[in-house]
Specification:
Elements (H helix, E strand, L loop, with lengths): L16 E7 L4 E2 L4 E8 L4 E9 L5 E6 L7 E7 L1 H7 L9 E7 L6 E8 L2 E4 L4
Parallel strand pairs: 1-8
Antiparallel strand pairs: 1-2, 1-5, 3-4, 3-6, 6-7, 8-9
Length: 127
């Protein structure tokens, strides 16, 4: 069955926040991995979940924040890695991965890739 995604998504979408997950153990996209986006509420520290998506067949989540929806502040992406690895029949050292980042300019497009294996992960600011 198709993976749940936001309505109106397309491969050419230019959302203000996107992500891409690659399974480095296989060199393939990590399809079907749950991703949650939350924003730190000020005064805090309390996180408010904004959206949950799943990566598509190419390991991508487009439009986590649609154009015009971003605000300056601190956000986190939570990747549910244990469930992903369990679905592939593997154990995972990390039950989830949280990437915390700051949006200083809400008009700027942000892309945050994640590279995962059962025992490691890395992330960076992409383009």
């Amino acid at each position: 069955p198709p993976l749940p995604q936001a309505e109106g998504m397309s491969e050419t979408a230019n959302g203000s926040l996107t992500t891409h997950v690659l399974n480095t153990a296989t060199g393939l996209p990590a399809a079907g991995l749950a991703v949650r986006l939350a924003q730190l509420q000020e005064p805090g520290p309390q996180w408010m979940e904004l959206v949950q998506r799943w990566t598509d067949k190419d390991g991508r989540c487009l439009l986590l924040l649609a154009p015009g929806k971003a605000k300056a502040g601190t956000y986190k992406l939570r990747f549910e890695t244990a469930a992903y690895w369990q679905g592939l029949g593997h154990a995972s050292f990390y039950p989830f991965v949280e990437v915390v980042f700051t949006i200083a300019d809400p008009t700027q497009r942000l892309h945050i890739p994640l590279l995962i294996s059962p025992y490691s992960y890395t992330t960076y600011r992409g383009s």
